UniProtKB/TrEMBL annotation:
The keyword Phosphoprotein does not apply. Pfam families: YbaB_DNA_bd. Keywords: Coiled coil, DNA-binding. Residues 9-43 form a coiled coil. This is DNA-binding protein YbaB. The keyword Transmembrane does not apply. Gene3D superfamilies: Nucleoid-associated protein YbaB-like domain (3.30.1310.10). It comes from the Bacteria. GO terms for molecular function: DNA binding. InterPro entries: YbaB-like_sf, YbaB/EbfC.
Length: 170
């Protein structure tokens, strides 16, 4: 091996060692972010203030709270829409918290050359980092429009809420 080949080899080895050191630091930071995210929750209320939903960082509801007057002030359909609205808002808030938590790590990873850029056939460290982070939450769909007052009155006047429930023997 010539001196120039040895020098290039040493320079490449130093670059790879630096990248591996940075990768190990990123792994520690990802573990820290993951543990913080595991304890993170997001909360949201429905627009009618009858339903509060708490979701985990993945947007999965972990608590649903109904105000005591919810059954007096709403129909089952409206209350269902309020639950969906609050759950979707909590999921969006959780996604924002997740993105904020992982942004510094993603920014740091984006500034470095990837191992596969330096060594042909080497695994991609950036792909590995992306696989370690949580997937972003999907954009929730908007709830259907609420019943108007006339529909609500008809609902109670004709007692259709009694017909919609399947009969269950006790």
């Amino acid at each position: 091996m010539t001196d120039s080949e040895r020098a290039r080899n040493d320079a490449l080895r130093a670059q790879v060692d630096s990248m591996l050191e940075t990768f190990e630091q990123q792994q520690r930071e990802v573990a820290d972010v993951r543990s913080r995210l595991a304890a993170t929750t997001a909360e949201a209320w429905s627009s009618d203030n009858l339903v509060r939903v708490v979701s985990n960082v993945s947007g999965v509801p972990i608590e649903v709270h109904l105000e005591p007057e919810a059954f007096k002030r709403s129909t089952p359909e409206k209350l269902g829409r309020s639950m969906a609205e609050a759950a979707q808002a909590a999921a969006r808030a959780a996604a924002e918290l997740s993105e904020q938590a992982v942004a510094p790590i993603q920014n740091l990873a984006g500034e470095l050359p990837d191992l596969s850029d330096l060594v042909p056939g080497a695994p991609s460290i950036k792909d590995l980092m992306r696989s370690m982070l949580p997937e972003p939450a999907e954009e929730p769909q908007a709830p259907p429009p609420p019943l108007d007052d006339e529909d609500e009155d008809e609902f109670y006047r004709n007692r259709t809420y009694l017909d919609e429930q399947p009969h269950r023997p006790y």
